[in-house]
Design a protein that fits this description.
This protein is an alpha/beta fold. The chain contains eleven helices and five strands, in the order βαβαβαβαβααααααα. α1 links the parallel β1 and β2.
Length: 224
């Protein structure tokens, strides 16, 4: 047993009812179809698993996406997205809003359970698409505070190398490499939270305003 307690916010009934059964080592203290319901009930849990898209024909006006992440983080929850979303800029915007984990719905259940346990233990969990985005930010000079070892690990992960493969070429243990990666993921998430969307746009060669439809609203304290 992992001892992890979780809340699930998911509008698809089959997933909302089925996931707790499929992940028996995770204690789901509550499940909700809407963000507003979770914020009203305020149950205590280690983490929240949040579906990024909650609007459907039965609930057209519910808070979702970056706004839902922002509200849940402001309420004191640690938010991990459980989503099919593929657009890396949308996922990056959710990290900028305060989410610290992203798990694919298509991932095998053992991988989902492992990612949840890692997230509950305080690690930042991100998918391959955001590894590539992080490497791009490094190459464009937006993210500059990585150590040489962290850059090596990032380059390997961005190219799909396993920890076993990197261990052989870098002559470091797999556990050491995982440690470098967990540090790197946290640095990247913090960078996205602390950087204005205009700076990200310039780094990635995007047109001014391209990210504004996705990025969390800036606070004066962050960007002034």
């Amino acid at each position: 047993m992992t001892g992890v307690t979780a809340i699930l916010i998911e509008d698809a009934t089959a997933i909302r009812l089925g996931l707790p059964t499929l992940l028996p080592d995770i204690t789901f203290v509550a499940t909700f179809a809407r963000t507003e319901e979770a914020l009203s009930a305020r149950p205590a849990a280690d983490i929240i698993l949040l579906d990024l898209h909650l609007t459907n024909s039965g609930q057209r006006n519910t808070t979702q996406g970056v706004a839902a992440v922002t509200d849940l983080v402001a309420a004191g929850y640690r938010v991990c997205l459980y989503t099919q979303e593929e657009r890396r800029f949308v996922l990056a915007a959710c990290l900028a809003a305060g989410a610290r984990g992203l798990i694919r719905k298509s991932a095998p259940l053992p991988e989902v359970a492992e990612s949840i346990a890692q997230f509950a233990a305080g690690q930042v969990v991100v998918p391959q698409s955001l590894i590539a985005l992080t490497e791009l930010l490094v190459r464009k000079g937006s993210l500059t505070i990585l150590s040489p070892r962290q850059r090596q690990v990032l380059a390997g992960r961005a190219r799909g190398q396993t920890y076993s493969e990197m261990s052989r070429t870098m002559h470091l243990s797999e556990s050491t490499l995982r440690g470098y990666w967990h540090e790197l993921a946290a640095i990247a998430a913090d960078h996205l939270q602390q950087t204005a969307p205009a700076d990200i746009e310039r780094s990635l060669g995007l047109a001014a305003g391209d990210l504004l439809g996705f990025w969390p609203a800036p606070s004066p304290a962050r960007y002034d």
